[in-house]
Amino acid sequence: MSSATDRARSPGEWVQFAVAGIIVAAMFYPTVWMVIxxxxxxxEIFRSPFGLPAEWRWKNFVEAWDLGGLGGLYLNSIIxxxxxxxxxxxxxxxxxxAFTRLExxxxxxxxxxxxxxxxxxxxxxxxxxxxxxxxxxxxNTLWALILPGAAWSLSITVFLMRGYFNSLRPDMEEAARxxxxxxxxxxxxxxxxxxxxxxxxxxxxxxxxxxxxxMFALLFxxxxxxxxxxxxxxxxxxxxxxxYALVFAALTITTxxxxxxxxxxxxxxxxxxxxxxxx
Length: 279
Known about the structure:
single chain; 74% helix
C-alpha cells in the first residue's frame, strides 16, 4: 500500500510549487548575478550583463580586498558580532528563564516593558544613545557597537526564548529542585541544554542582524581602523563607484560568508522557530 506521501500531486499543488520556484528564483537571482559580475571586467559587465564571463578574473577579489582594507573590517565585524551575540543570547536566555520559571514582584510589568524595544526603530534612540555613549567615553570604540547591538537584540531574543521555555514541561527542573539544586544549577545544568535549539536559532538570526548593522556604525565610529564591513562597503563604493567589477567583488566577499552560514544552518533556524510556542 502506498503511503500518503507517495500519492500523485494535484494540479493545484504543482501550481503552488511553480509559483514558489519563480519567487525564489526572482529573489535569489540578483545575488547570483552579483557573484558572476564580480568575475568580469567593467566592459564585459555592460557588453554581456547576463552572460558568463569570458575570463574568470580572480584578481578582482584580490584587488578589492587590498584596496578596501577588508581584512581589518572583517576582524572588527567578527569581534563586534560575536561579542554582541554572546551577550544578547546569554542574558536573554537567563531573562526568559526568570520570566517563565521564577515568581517575583512585577514579573509581567518588567516583561512588557522589555517588549517595548520591539516597537522602537533605531533612529528614535540614536541621539540619546549618542549622548550616553559620549558620557561613558565609549564613542569611537568597538563597545559603542557591541553594547547597542546586544541591547537591540535583547527584546526579540527574550520574546522568542520565553515562548520556547513555555513549550517545555518543567518536570526535570522540579525534580532537580527537589534534589536540592539551587536556581543557578537548575538554569545551567537543566534548562540551558533543553533550550539549546532555540539559542542556536537566535545566535544565527542575531548574527545576521548585527553583522549588517550600518546606522550606529556610521554615527559612533570615526577612526578608519575601527570601522565594520557595512561602513567599509559604503566608503569603498564612494571611492570606486565607477569600477563595478571591484564593487561587485567587494560585495561578494562580504555577503557570501553570511549567506553560506545561513544556508547551512537554516534547518536549525526553522526547527527552533517552529518549536517555539507563542503565548
